[in-house]
Amino acid sequence: MAILKFDIPSETMGRQVTFEAIIPAEALADGEEIAVLYLLHGVQGGYINWISLTNAMRLLGQRNLQADVGPGKARKRLALIMPSGGNGFYHPIPSREERQENMGHQHDYEAFLAEELPAWTRKMLPVSKEREDMGIAGLSMGGYGALYLGIKYGETFGFAGGLSSALLTQRSLEDNFVEGQFFRAPEFLDLVFGGFDDHRAENDVFRLSLKARAREKREDLPDGTLLPKLYLACGEQDPLLELSKELHTLWDKAHIPHTFETHPGAHEWAFWEWGLERMLRIF
Amino acid sequence: MSLVQMDFASGCLNRYTTMEVFLPDTAVPEEGFRSLYLLHGYHGNHTDMLRRLNLLKYAEANDIAIFMPDGDNAYWADFPERAEFYQEYVARELVPMTRRLFPLSARREDTYVAGISMGGGGAVRLGLMYSDVFGKVAGLSPYLVSYEDFDPVGHGTNALKALDDVLMARQASIFSFSMGGLVELPKMYLTIGTDDALLSENRQFHEMLEMASLPHIYKEYPGAHDWDFWNERLPELFEFLNQPEV
Questions:
Q1: Which of A137, A237, B29, B224 is the most buried (most CB within 10 A)?
Q2: Chain A contact for B23, CB < 8 A?
Q3: How many alpha carbons fall within 13 Å on the CB side of residue A124?
Q4: What percent of chain B lies above the pLDDT cut of 70?
Q5: What is the pLDDT at residue B157?
Q6: Where do the structural domains in chain A lie, given as residue ranges?
Q7: Å between B82 CA and nearest CA of chain A
Q8: CB contact under 8 A, B25 and A4
């Protein structure tokens, strides 16, 4: 299993960006294609988090050694790709509307993660073109990011997983405030959501999933045509547990297929490592 | 520019090893990118070419993927007694692995090996011994000399002596195969500074190739065995790599 650190030019980010990957490079057969799971970090994190704070490499190795995985088998071998997302909840920052006035400092994480990075990885690595072979998952802010991007770009991602997801748009700006946490301050959230209340009204995970489900029903599409396979989990001692339960309830009511799990643990890496192992089984 | 630092398990070296990679940002050609395996010198490592050469200027202007492996101080040779097979690693492990991982051309004429000093000698030897893999070979101030004649830092060992004997014997047989039309040798570019202690051995090698009527480019320039000299050779190196196959 190989660890690769990439440093590539990004048009949507307007700069060179770095990310890490774990790829079963040594074991590839001629012409073999691999599946990819993008892993997003949380606030104050970076691309190095998943690889250094979990047993990601060993868990991936176990997953790729399963009997039904490999060339000619039911499931393709998997690679993990871990980008850096700043603290902006994986939104375009500043918002695309404000960009004209704010040239020179633009970070379109949404376009980077949903369009540019999948295209780049398919161009440069032997990554399958199938939607079912591309997944996105994350923890906390990254759990929110993975769910909103996975659902909004359901034609790209066949799997979306959120661990301890910071589903902040389920609460008002005021209710999100936590003393001493810069990323829960109203001004900060208003900035990185490109207008928090506007985003809440139109574009949050709850509404995006209901919209996609409604379209599946309206157009009589089979389950999962627009929505990726969904995974949701949270630690039983995590203050964010309530938010995941609310999303689970909503998905149940709307008959949106998904897996919801809780497990002993707080907002911490021991739980996210457990969640990664679960997602590697399900994806 | 796209750069990759890669750590991976090598079967030929029996260890985890590391490599720097340059990938072009242009569209992938139909056959895949051409590839250059670029070998560092003694005392160096896989980061030398990016840190000490103005390599990226030329890399960006030429759509060639460049792979810079770590070769220790091992002369890019095989050491069975240590279970470390550096030339097998480059030619039979690295080339196929990089082709499976990145969008590279699988054609011999699109696959190059080059190096500096110890890496130049390694590149020439790899080109001769794995002429099925490499279409072009470049040696910048290559260390081609025999153990008997040259041992500049006193690191000679019996293993190195044995290695040298093997190499000379294999090179001789490659030349005779080539002269018999049995092996198609890669195109070869050799350059050396006139103040380089390796000059006379490079001249001998050049004369040997001439006597054997093996086509190659051989250029002497003023200069020594240093990074200034190798930087100045980069335009000519890429010109050589870009020459169309005739």
A1: A137
A2: yes
A3: 22
A4: 83
A5: 45
A6: 2-282
A7: 22
A8: no
Report residue B39 CA to chain centroid gap.
5
Contacts with B1 from chain A: Cβ below 8 Å:
9
Chain A residues with CB-CB distance to B97 below 8 A: 25-26, 28
Task: Please give the distance of CA A159 from its chain centroid, rounded to a whole number.
Answer: 9
CA–CA distance from B85 to each of A248, B2, B82, B107, B115 (Å)? 55, 29, 8, 24, 18
Higher-pLDDT residue of A223 and B169 is: A223
Distance from CA of B48 to the nearest CA of A (A): 18
| Mean pLDDT, residues B78-82 | 83
Q: How many beta-carbon pairs below 8 A join chains A and B? A: 57
At position A129, the amino acid (one-letter code) is: K
User: Which chain A residues touch B if contact means CB-CB below 8 Å?
Assistant: 1-9, 23, 25-26, 28-32, 123-126
Q: What is the CATH number of the domain that holds B231?
A: 3.40.50.1820
Determine contact: B30 vs chain A, CB below 8 A: no
Contact criterion met (CB below 8 Å) for A234 and A244 = yes
This prediction's pTM: 0.92
Task: Mean pLDDT check: name the lowest of A258-262, B209-213, B229-233.
Answer: B209-213
What is the mean pLDDT for each group of 10 consecutive residues in chain A (283 residues)? 97 93 96 98 96 97 94 95 94 68 71 97 98 98 97 97 96 93 92 89 92 96 95 98 98 97 98 98 92
CA distance B19 to B223: 29
A155: Cα separation from own chain's centroid: 14
- Greater model confidence, A76 or B214: A76
| Rounded Cα–Cα distance for residues A272 and A52 (Å) | 12
Mean pLDDT value across chain B = 87
Tell me how close the Cα of A111 comes to any Cα of chain B, in angstroms. Answer: 19
Secondary structure element (H or E) that encloses residue A173, with its range: helix A173-176
Name the domain count of chain B.
Answer: 1
Which token pair is B58? 């030329």
The 3-state DSSP class for residue A58 equals helix
B14 contact A CB<8A: no
DSSP state of B104: B
- CA A144 to CA A40: how far, in whole Å? 9
> What average pLDDT does the segment B23-41 reach?
97
CB A61 within 8 A of CB A80: no
* Superfamily for domain range A2-282: Alpha/Beta hydrolase fold, catalytic domain (3.40.50.1820)
Are residues B6 and A4, on separate chains, in Cβ contact within 8 Å? Answer: yes
Query: What residues of A are in contact with residue B3 (Cβ under 8 Å)?
Result: 6-8
Q: What angle (nearest 5°) sits at the alpha carbon of residue B69, between those of residues B63 and B74?
A: 140
Q: Where residue B128 falls among pLDDT bands split at 50, 70, 90?
A: confident
Query: Which domain range does residue B181 map to?
Result: 2-242
